[in-house]
Structure formats: structure tokens, C-alpha cells
Specification:
mainly beta, Elongation Factor Tu (Ef-tu), domain 3, 2 domains, 7-stranded antiparallel beta sheet, 3 helices, 12% helix, 38% strand
Length: 206
């Protein structure tokens, strides 16, 4: 479990193909603090640390994960958001993020607003029931508040600190991002569907 507050950035240092999926090596200042088997969110995707060296960690990405998240398109030199799993005694500064990506979205527009940035992200129609205005959504692992919403896109206003300390500052229009909807909202929609009061169960993104 994570809370969508990015600890630091990492750089994809190496990609190695496996018989199924691939292995990634991410250079980061967190490497010395990581333990084998530990969970770490990479652009919002929960991965397992399988090896560490002095300045990087290694993780394996399965074909399923590569296919349903933006990690399948990673290239050497790309900058990624990193967050270690939250401690039970920690404050939840963002919202509960599982690291289980529901779908990918696409950045349609980035515009300046009096020192802030407003980012517009399009999303698949299957996610529409799980997004609400002023609710939470994780974009590449970053906990953001939905500022504007339609059936196909949402806006989020990015404060300067978040812009400068995440890979959003490197984002461009057309970029693919990992999206994870609020788990509480997903449970509510699922309960309504079981009772027959909500969208059909095939709309569940999980």
C-alpha cells in the first residue's frame, strides 16, 4: 500500500529481456535503503525489489504488467516516480494507493495557471464510474485531486512542488500515464453493482 506521495525520482539504467517479460534496473538514491522482497511503486506500479547494488535496484516486470501499464514502453534514460510502501504508523498525506493500475490514460494538454499547471488526462470509459470531482486519482503514482471532469477526461491542478519533484515536469502532450482510481470508490461501485444499483460488474477496472 502506498499513499501517492513521490519520495524521489529514479532513472531507468538498464532493460534486460527475459523469456517472459523483462528486468529493469533503476538508479536511485533510495537503493541503499531498500531490502530484497520490498515493494516499491515505479510510476505507480507496485514492483518487488529482487536485487540491489550500490546505487540502483532491480525488479522484474511480467508480460501482464507490461501490457496493461505504461511500463511496457519504458526506455533507458527515462525518469520514473518512486515511492516505497507506506508504514503502518505513517500519516497518509495523499490517499490509499495500491499500486495496481486500472488503465492507462493520455495527457491531452498542459497549461499554465498563475504559477500552477493544469493537466488534462483522457481515460477509458470503463473508469468513468470511479472518478468524481474533488476526488482522488493516482497518475503515474502521484496522488492528485480531480479538479474538472467529463466522461472522457479529467483535469488536475499541479502545485509547483509536485511539478518540480515528480516526473510531471518532463511530461509532454500525448504521453501515456498509469491511472489508479480510489480504492474506496471502487468498493462502493462494486457493492452497488452486486445489489443491482450500479454499473454492471464488467465495468470494474480491477
Amino acid at each position: 500500500m502506498f499513499n501517492g506521495l513521490i519520495e524521489t525520482l529514479g532513472e531507468v539504467a538498464e532493460l534486460k529481456a527475459l523469456p517472459a517479460g523483462f528486468r529493469i534496473r533503476v538508479a536511485t538514491s533510495l537503493a541503499a535503503e531498500l531490502e530484497l522482497g520490498e515493494s516499491i511503486a515505479v510510476n505507480g506500479v507496485c514492483l518487488t525489489v529482487i536485487h540491489t547494488d550500490r546505487d540502483a535496484f532491480h525488479a522484474e516486470i511480467s508480460p501482464e504488467t507490461a501490457g496493461v501499464t505504461g511500463l511496457g514502453a519504458l526506455q533507458r534514460g527515462w525518469v520514473v516516480n518512486l515511492e516505497r510502501s507506506m508504514r503502518a504508523d505513517a500519516r497518509v498525506g495523499g490517499h490509499f494507493v495500491q499500486g495496481h493500475v486500472d488503465a492507462t490514460g493520455r495527457i491531452e494538454e498542459i497549461r499554465h495557471e498563475a504559477g500552477f499547471r493544469r493537466v488534462t488526462v483522457t481515460f477509458p470509459s470503463s473508469l468513468a464510474p470511479y472518478l468524481v470531482r474533488k476526488g482522488s486519482v493516482a497518475v503515474d503514482g502521484i496522488s492528485l485531486t480531480v479538479a474538472g471532469l467529463s466522461d472522457t477526461w479529467f483535469d488536475a491542478q499541479i502545485i509547483p512542488f509536485t511539478w518540480e519533484h515528480t516526473n510531471l515536469s518532463r511530461a509532454t502532450t500525448g504521453a501515456v500515464v498509469n491511472l489508479e482510481c480510489d480504492i474506496i470508490g471502487k468498493y462502493v461501485v462494486r457493492a452497488m453493482a452486486v445489489r443491482g444499483d450500479g454499473p454492471p460488474s464488467h465495468g470494474d477496472p480491477s
